[in-house]
Amino acid sequence: MDYKPVGVGKTVRNARRGLPEAGYWKKFQSPVLVKEYGMVTSLEFSPIKPHDLLVTAAMRLQVYNGRTSQLKKAITRFHGQARSGSYRSDGKLIVAGDDTNIVQVFDGASRSVLRTFKGHQDPVHVTRFLPNNVHVMSGSDDKTVQIWDIPSQKAVNVFSEHTDYVRSGCVFAGNANVVATGSYDHTVRIWDVRANRCVTTIATDEPVEDVMVLPGGSVAAAAAGPNVHMFDLLMGGRVLTTLGNHEKTVTSLCMDSAGGRLIAGSLDHHVKIYNVQSFKMMYSMAYPAPVLSVALSADDTRLAVGMASGVFSLRRRAVSAKEQALAAPAPRARLGTHAHFTRGAAYKGGDDDLRIEQRRKRSLADYDQFLRKFEHSRALDAVLANNRTGLTVVSLLQELVHRDGLVGALAGRDELGLDTIVRFVVKFIDHPRYTSVLVKVAETLLDIYGDLLHQSGRIAELLVRLRAKVRTELRLQQDLTMVLGSMDMLMAACKVSHAAVPAIDAAATEKPSIQA
Prior knowledge:
The chain has about 525 residues and is an alpha+beta fold. The protein is about 25% helix and about 35% strand. Helix 5 packs antiparallel against helix 6 (about 390-400).
């Protein structure tokens, strides 16, 4: 049978203050404030590196470099307020609407207009590329949602079931046949492009400012008034929960790259981060003006927030060297090198792989080696000689008690050997976790060396200190016992008084009986 090492007990740590990921969001520091020509109504990062930032404000689209955060280019081919600038999945094309009722597709490199879609009767507030990269969705104040074909420059679908302005919309990742829109008619509608009809209608209490579908396509989030509603699309739009941590209207929603955090911006000057699994708020950021738009880059390193004051804030998160190493692709090992022959050694295997457990032989501590040979006295000397923690020494003493080896470990010691163990007992005997074991050790020492302790002035001095420490602890325990007794009396008196009040109220409200 293998020897089982001494189990060092674990102390109970205090609960950590704050949320574990609060430090993660605090790393988004050094906000850069950029003044635009008007209210920043839309923000979006390019899906490809270096993740340039597309800002929609006033009558233009501004593109900021992903590495330097400097203005890279501006698209000014608008005759009205620009709306909802958005990238295609390959980052090569940009689509946007405006208040002149048109939708335009631009070349992201040359800024030239490639397509112009005309068919709406009122300003276009929503534009998105569908995942197939050849269709564009648009939503307008004329209460319609249209799907445009880029090659033919024609509308292939027109949905007109909304009864008020369409101000938000999103596409389903990986599915070009379904889109979702939110309207001021207090509804979120899911449209089937193939069937050319609405397949799901979800009612809300307030006008819908923004809507998005979480990764997987089974849950949708809608910003309506000061609340963010979470809906289960597989159950016909059943409400999962309502996130009501904002005080004013929530205007914009976005997700992190992993799909685990929902970021919401509001007119109450705050951006709040929610856990989409527990539906709890994890962090909050304050801004100097009402928030109209939020965006997080695909690598989760930059957070952009647009405000009604015409300013947008760009925060950058410092990436650790370890995170950069994990994100960087591993270099290919050269043929014939040591790295080539050891490649794959760090592979952990999949969850469904059959793993053969390989146990490594654990090296024993010096005191464990002595315990294994039943040399209890030398084990005690070893654990005391190497500045071990108090918990380790007490764990060894507890093991000696269980083995009935405490007397043998303490007996036969000279003055120097006794000095070390007595000093340890004096230092830790009032520790709540160690008291029960060290009291037994002190009693054993007195039983063995009681008649000889007066011969050593050093040990006698330590025993005087031990007696003083024990007396102080006893007085403290007596005082605590008196305090507990007083508190018990107060609690009993409170219970009696609370029980008497209902009886008095019942007697006061009881009507006197009328005797015949």
